[in-house]
Amino acid sequence: MFDQVDPFIGTEATSLPAPSGLAATWWWPKPQVGNTHPGATYPFGMVSACAYSGAYPTGYGRYDLSTEGLPPVLHDRQVASGFTHFQQSGTGAIRKYYNYFRVTPMLRPLDDLGQTWDVLEEEASPGYYAATLGSGIRAEITVGPKSAVHRYTFPAHQDARLVIDFSLGGLDIPYGRTVPLRAHLGSVAPGVAEGEIVVEGAPLAVHVECDAPHWRQMLWYDRRLMPGGTRLDFDRIRPTTLRPFGLMWAGPTEAGQTVELRFGFSLRGVDQAHETLVAECGPGPDTFDSRRQRTETVWRQHLDKVVVDTPSSEKRTVMATALYHSLIKPCLAMDESPFWPTPGPFAFDLSTMWDIYRTHLPLMTALVPERSVELANALLQIAEEEGNFPIGYRMARGADRFSRQGSALAHTFLADLCALGLPGVDWDWALVHMHNDLRRTYGEDFLLRGKAHPISHTLDIAFGYWCTAVVAGRVGDRTLVDQFGPLAARWVNAYASDGLLADSTFYEGGKWNYSFRLMHDMAARIALTGGDGPFVDMLDRFFGFGADPVVQPGLAPGLDELTAGYALDRFEGLNNEPDMEAPWAYMYAGRPDRTAQVVHDVVQQQFSTGRGGLPGNDDSGGLSSWYVWATLGLFPVAGQNTYLVNAPAWREARIDVGDRPLAIETTGFVEPEPGGPAQYVQQVHLDGEPLDRPYLTGAELHSGGRLLIALGPEPSRWGTTHRPPSAPTPHGAGRHT
Q1: Which of 2, 49, 425, 472 has a CA 20 to 30 Å removed from the CA of 99?
Q2: pTM of the model
Q3: Cβ pair 59, 99 in contact under 8 A
Q4: Which residue intervals define the domain Glycosyl hydrolase family in the entry (predicted)?
Q5: Helices 360-367 & 369-386, crossing angle to 10 degrees?
């Protein structure tokens, strides 16, 4: 799949063919742009690198801040003032924009630092980014897990230069700039420098080497060179006193001459940054090609874990890119915690847990379970040191952990790992922190009053108790299992008599978007609505069956337009994530045909090739992971170790889930088309045995085998009698294993 990846998908405003059928009735309230970037990345790596324009939110591209509708334009074309590191992937306004250590290749005086050049002849593939600036300088960048290598090809010039700005960070939008609190940098030897900036409490160190031995090496401050200076130190930097500063190499070039810059990064000081550079890139010089090749090899290994059979090169590109976007974040940085001295797992850029816990983390667990175990231990270490699990976690110190967006989301991830029995996690230790975390923030209201507002947190916390009971059962703590059962049942307190969530405030949506979450006791949830019929009728209304087409928000939509749109109480069409699991709620009411129809229209109409090929923010791979699962004909019920089965979008597919891959094969398959009819499951066999139930257990999926799905043009009785699991208490809870 490596050669089919297009890292430019999602970098521009949504540009999809006009929707038809159900898809035409879905309303998109959030920014219509993927917010991805095409920069060089490494699977779950700490470092990324890309052209920098200061645009929202990754630093790459053309757009200004956007929170709904079409993104406003900041630049009318692709421009860059240099190349930066540590970009987000697909997120929105998380108020942390990175983009540190900007490298600017120049043929002009230092006074011109900060000007932008046109970005021409862009190329990108996993682990590699290249572009030619309007100045005629060609830039190529590749990265390792904690390192970056730049290669610049210059035209003939008497005084070419490479400038690294240590002071710049964030974006060129209001309130998007990052000002370092402290900074230290200095020359170590000819062609070698090091330094550290402290940004939002996190010390980020760099060791950098330049392989132009005859160039001058100088520090600079406020765009003035410091000949002979070897060190700059800044303490207590204020926004009003900050002046740009950094270092520079300069000298004559012949046409086609190349210069390499090698960066080693660390959150634990310059010595570890140096060690990282040597370990990942060797002693130099001329390490660009070897580092690029090794990164490409790792990407090929990861992207080969999913293979699909399709005659459409466009669909293969969408799938390959979705898988690629699913493997970029979070950043796993072993032995790099700047906040506590112990070695071990550390993670950051866990910026949208409320988006990724349902799709991305289960995909990570399926494809690279050892990295999921590493992430789990990183989360446990954070809880150990800071007192609670994060809802989001950045390369920053502070209590801003996005608690408004969700509660107890790490619990779903941990419950799935525990149920699978993956080695490497101390579940007694995990249980302590899972239990303690449930009593924090909104958890106190939940315990005292039976529910918490925003009301969606009541569902989060109740399910968190259910997931924690899974772990309590594994370690044999029957007392906790019995205690958590009644607390997990409090999800019912979130619902009103009409079968929808009670009136409350909601994060990025309304009560309809949050009302169809796949809870642990869906049988009781459906009964609360009045049974299968009323529940399906409510879902039909939500998904727009029989509704008129809608008009999407345009540029800078007004309050009246947004109010009218939200009043539709309509599915958001994966423009946003709160209702991304709702299409599968039909399966709990015996209507897998409805799931097939909705998912078909999402898959075929809401994703495409090209820079505008995503319907909304990719959110650290949460959106792309949805596409990967849905097209495979599977969907994870996060925290419940269950995978729902639906009609796949590929004739055949293979998932590398361990010792034995899972092959998904079909009979009666017809290549699906946008606006065309859906296909429906008629029969399913797993390793030759009939599978009447519409789901796989986690153990079955991770064991691999052959899943044969017979498809047809009309709904069948398959999946209408046997429902997915539904239980107030986890199956097997209390049984020591």
Answers
A1: 2
A2: 0.97
A3: yes
A4: 272-712
A5: 130
